[in-house]
Amino acid sequence: MMPDVKGLTEKIKKFRDERDWMQFHGHKEMAISLILEAAEVLEHFQWKSPQEIEEYAKIHKDEIGEEIADVGMYLFELADNLGIDLKEAMEKKLEKNAAKYPIEKAKGKHTKYNKL
Amino acid sequence: MMPDVKGLTEKIKKFRDERDWMQFHGHKEMAISLILEAAEVLEHFQWKSPQEIEEYAKIHKDEIGEEIADVGMYLFELADNLGIDLKEAMEKKLEKNAAKYPIEKAKGKHTKYNKL
Amino acid sequence: MMPDVKGLTEKIKKFRDERDWMQFHGHKEMAISLILEAAEVLEHFQWKSPQEIEEYAKIHKDEIGEEIADVGMYLFELADNLGIDLKEAMEKKLEKNAAKYPIEKAKGKHTKYNKL
Amino acid sequence: MMPDVKGLTEKIKKFRDERDWMQFHGHKEMAISLILEAAEVLEHFQWKSPQEIEEYAKIHKDEIGEEIADVGMYLFELADNLGIDLKEAMEKKLEKNAAKYPIEKAKGKHTKYNKL
Lengths: 116, 116, 116, 116
Prior knowledge:
Four copies of one chain form a homotetramer. Chain A is an all-alpha fold and 116 residues long. Chain A has helices spanning 4-18, 27-43, 50-59, 61-81, 86-100, 103-106. The model of chain A has no long low-confidence stretch (mean pLDDT 96). Chains in contact: A-B, A-C, A-D, B-C, B-D, C-D. Chains A and D meet through helix 2 of A and helix 2 of D.
């Protein structure tokens, strides 16, 4: 069975290429789309208090899920276009973060690593 | 073998919970982090022409990869916190997009679906 | 005395033209810069609780002021490049918002106008 | 005659206070709104080529103007809430930028100041 990041990326590329859309998918354009979809996700929570967000997130789960999916699709494709293995990059970053934020120092705090 | 979206998400959650960071990871805060990391990706391409981007993306691939990874980590965790199956949501959205953008109508054009 | 929106815009344009930077200031590029600077503003408040923000905003007022200024500079110039009178556009939008959010209906609520 | 940044800010604050909206206008919430409106501006130019943008910007000037106005309103109010004099901050930043980007070094180039 094909790992799902690779499998999803292949489906996304097939969809793009069937429509001859690679001409519009330069890195800058993909990065623009990524931030615009991230804005669509954030917009769901604008103005709302933590309790309102709790309730809202349950009722509108599918709607928010579509925005989450959009971010995913631009992210997976941009990574692929840049020749970046997303899974590998995420694992490497988790390791780097573990060194920047050792548990004894970072536990229970949101302080940035250079101020720990 | 655990599918990699689920596997990565488990690692991200373990990292978060070891540091007792869930208290900071409400949906709005995660969505804020998502858009800030997307901005970090886009910043790499600010001002640059298509040719400059071509070259730059090769030389700075690892650097950009870290930002791409950061977006991935916030996305995977936010989806999980919201109870959204990221893989499923992305496959559903691809189907929905296929209906919105039929190949015969959308091929070679970047027109929005409601103006096709 | 020249009104200050116009006066600031003239200084911004002089600065740009002395450096022959108009070639890089197409609308898309300016809109990208606008969102990147807005991200710089938001980043100051990432992770922080309301009380932490109160304190932080006093201590780091000048730093945040620089980011606020950057947003202002891209906004004023983009408006000018688009042939938009910023002051007039803002006054028109305030009027439009007054109609969308009549006081009796909107007071004390953050509900979007189409759900009032 | 009241300078227009101050005049517009007073109108924005009156509009907000008539509706008892200050309770929703903490710095983080305003910064979120700022970036969401900046995304609305950028969205107008998504996917479009330079020539398409030229045409589009003329036809849709009023529409884009509304988004530009929204960014302006959140910016002016956030500055005021933070106790920042927007005009002064922008003039200070222009001076700082003049030192970071001396004309002889920066003319015709989009290189970041620390790489000039």
